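Budget justification aside, the reviewers requested a transparent look at the raw inputs and outputs of the sequence design task funded under Objective 1. We therefore reproduce one unedited record. The lines immediately below are the structure tokens for a 372-residue chain.
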């Protein structure tokens, strides 16, 4: 696996019961996955020679991020390395302009959009879609709200162009909530779909995921799952695909983003599904039969733990574990920094209000925003 973050850490954990020998390319020995994987190569994924050396002896290469340069992925594939997902699929998660063009081509509903060249062009786009505000995004390199701007005036539109990469303009969608459809697809075409979830954001960062999405009609949930399955097939995705969606006020769903790796909106599956997103990603990239994605409980809630006042979690654990013996805590081994994702918690049960309260209390206490 290329990338040493928490996604790699949890994917490695899912491979342990299968006896999978896991090799990691990590930026530093302190990275989340590098702390727990036995075979770690420290190196820069942006260096082709490093990637080629790392790939020797690997049966398959997969990723915990989308940032490996496309030309490097092409070189690995030309070397005969099995890369899953392959470049032809992964480019749609690397480049938002390419993604939007492909989704348009295959008839997938998305916000109105186009590439813009400067602030004046952004203002012209705003006029086309009914005026400001609009959303501007760098086509590559953004995550967790980075590389995304909510733009109210032409003057506001200057910052995105200073990044030196192409800028995508999108209409501001009048949506009621954000959803995510998570699916996993194998090389031989088997695919499974998890329940559609509601994803709640705070300051552009995922805060809470509710599985399944409350009060989502069976018709719209089915549309979202079928849309994700169709995208995976059309793009020839192998492994986990997260399709982030807007549910609009007029009852439609629009595709916001794609991620071709395990995803924050699927962390609930560790404790809430028969087979987690991580276990199914491992199965998919190794072309093994996929596991059952059905939920184990009526409701599962995931809350992210962001860095706060507690650099040492031990005493916070005492409170959280004593208060809720069913609570599942997943920490990433990261240094605690304000606002940084350092872990998540999962709760489950039959009463949604109770499950939500338990998850939010635990996440807040681990962060230090709740003290009793």
């Amino acid at each position: 696996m290329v990338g040493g973050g928490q996604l790699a850490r949890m994917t490695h954990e899912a491979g342990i019961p299968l006896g999978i020998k896991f090799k990691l390319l990590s930026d530093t020995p302190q990275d989340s996955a590098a702390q727990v994987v036995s075979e770690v190569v420290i190196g820069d994924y942006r260096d082709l020679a490093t990637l080629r050396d790392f790939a020797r002896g690997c049966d398959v290469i997969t990723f915990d991020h989308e940032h490996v340069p496309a030309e490097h992925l092409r070189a690995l594939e030309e070397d005969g390395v099995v890369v899953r997902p392959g470049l032809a699929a992964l480019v749609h998660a690397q480049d938002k302009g390419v993604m939007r063009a492909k989704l348009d081509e295959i008839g997938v509903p998305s916000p109105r959009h186009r590439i813009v060249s400067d602030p004046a062009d952004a203002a012209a786009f705003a006029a086309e879609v009914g005026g400001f505000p609009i959303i501007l995004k760098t086509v590559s390199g953004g995550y967790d709200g980075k590389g995304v701007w909510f733009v109210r005036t032409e003057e506001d539109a200057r910052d995105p162009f200073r990044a030196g990469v192409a800028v995508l303009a999108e209409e501001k969608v009048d949506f009621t909530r954000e959803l995510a459809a998570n699916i996993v697809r194998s090389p031989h075409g088997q695919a499974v779909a998890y329940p559609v979830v509601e994803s709640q954001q705070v300051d552009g960062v995922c805060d809470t995921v509710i599985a399944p999405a409350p009060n989502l009609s069976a018709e719209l949930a089915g549309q979202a799952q079928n849309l994700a399955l169709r995208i995976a097939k059309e793009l020839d995705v192998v492994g986990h695909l997260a399709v982030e969606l807007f549910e609009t006020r007029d009852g439609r769903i629009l595709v916001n983003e794609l991620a071709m790796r395990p995803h924050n909106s699927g962390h609930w599956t560790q404790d809430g599904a028969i087979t987690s997103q991580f276990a199914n990603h491992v199965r998919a990239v190794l072309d093994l039969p996929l596991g059952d994605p059905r939920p184990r409980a009526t409701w599962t809630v995931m809350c992210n733990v962001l860095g706060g006042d507690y650099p040492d979690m031990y005493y916070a654990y005492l409170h959280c574990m004593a208060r809720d013996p069913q609570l599942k805590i997943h920490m990433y081994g990261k240094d605690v920094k304000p606002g940084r994702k350092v872990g998540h918690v999962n709760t489950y049960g039959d009463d949604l209000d109770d499950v939500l309260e338990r998850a939010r209390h635990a996440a807040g206490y681990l962060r230090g925003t709740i003290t009793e």
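DSSP finds eleven helices and 15 strands in the chain. The first helix runs from residue 6 to 15. Computational costs for records of this kind are itemized in the attached budget.
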